[in-house]
Amino acid sequence: MTSRTKSGRHQRTSTPRTQTGSEKALSSAPAALNRTPSGYAAWLADVKARIHTARQRATLAVNRELLALYWRIGRDILVRQRRAGWGAGIVGRVSTDLRAAFPEMKGFSRANLMYMRAFAEAWPDEAAIVQQPVGQLPWGHNLVLLTRLRSAQERLAYAARSIEHGWSRAALALHIEQRTLEREGKAVTNFAERLPEPRSDLARESLKDPYRFDFLTLSAEASERELEDALVTHISRFLLELGAGFAYVGRQVHLEVDGRDFYLDLLFYHLRLRCYVVVELKAREFEPEHAGKLNFYLSAVDAKMRGEHDGPSIGILLCKTKSRVIAEYALRDTNKPMGVAEYQLVQALPVRLESSLPSIEQLESELGEPSGPGIHHDVRDESPRRRLARAITGPRHPKKVPPGKPSRRLKRRS
């Protein structure tokens, strides 16, 4: 910028430059941010950890107080209904009055008040709630335990496991539905003889029997390769079914031994056991020679893949069916740690539902496929419609129809 002086000459003058936002931030920033003092990073990490711990404690404290409040409300309703003769209608009255008094608070619906009553009935001692795993779970988790499990022992077991693995409410409901804890440690194994404690106990608890693969859209006659393809496609669901600690390594993992090629069906690594886990799939009944082949695979994995700090590799044979006695005999003198378990593609139906479903013959009649005493079907030659019928109803023995009595047919929808 220029200006005219009294002598008529032009004189150059400077104009203050406007600072940008970033320059203002730098000029106003504390000097400590420009030069980090010694030990600052460690101190900041410690402060963050303390804040995180304090927030967790605050959340747990709020949760404990909420559970205690719900338990006391539920106990009062329960006691007054039993001793003072309050009827069932009082719960609706209490809900209306509490929601009017505390409109900003949620949780005082009639249904939730009934859950509070059930909560107090399930855990008669308030002090025991604080000391038990259920006292560390949110109210929503406790509702899942109350509505889906009958005994206190089952609720405590699933509550403890939920805390251990950080299950969400949906994950807890899924594990209860799949009866995860009831199936753990049921497989036939030789871990007690081949692994030291406590590794043997952890390995045994890591295996289930049976494994449920009902998330796969496969028929009961699926081949081993079809089963393997489907499990890899749904690997996240498969890992969830296997349980905590399993990490997927690969499928058809190649091993070369003395110039010959061998391929492992599925290979995992267990993070808690610190070892490889070889999974072999058999879409048929267990045979003793299956254990011998898996024993060879485990020896090869230990020789070629096992690291210095890895534990002995473990094998899992997943078979369509098995004889427990034959499996125990087959594993008795096997050198490598392994287990034998069954898998299920379709969950068995409850008896009351199975009896109310139509038979295969009735479904075939409805679908337009004839079937009768003189018609025999080979499973390999079954049409998609018959497979659909068999998948819905499962194997059933045909009922004998008295002579002269017409067979029952499905009624067509109009």
Report on the architecture of this protein.
This protein is α/β, with parallel strands linked by helices and 414 residues long. Helix content is 49%, strand content 14%. It has 19 helices and nine strands. The protein has helices at 21-28, 31-34, 40-83, 90-101, 110-122, 126-131, 139-148, 152-165, 169-177, 180-183, 191-194, 199-206, 224-233, 235-242, 288-304, 324-332, 351-356, 360-367, 384-393; strands spanning 2-4, 10-12, 188-189, 211-212, 246-257, 260-270, 275-285, 314-321, 338-344. Strands 3, 4, 5, 6, 7, 8 and 9 form a seven-stranded mixed sheet that branches. A hairpin with a 5-residue loop joins strand 1 (2-4) and strand 2 (10-12). Helix 7 (139-148) runs parallel beside helix 9, helix 13 packs across helix 14 and helix 15 crosses helix 16. It is globular and about 80 Å long. The chain starts with a strand and ends in a 21-residue tail after the last helix. 23% of the residues are buried.
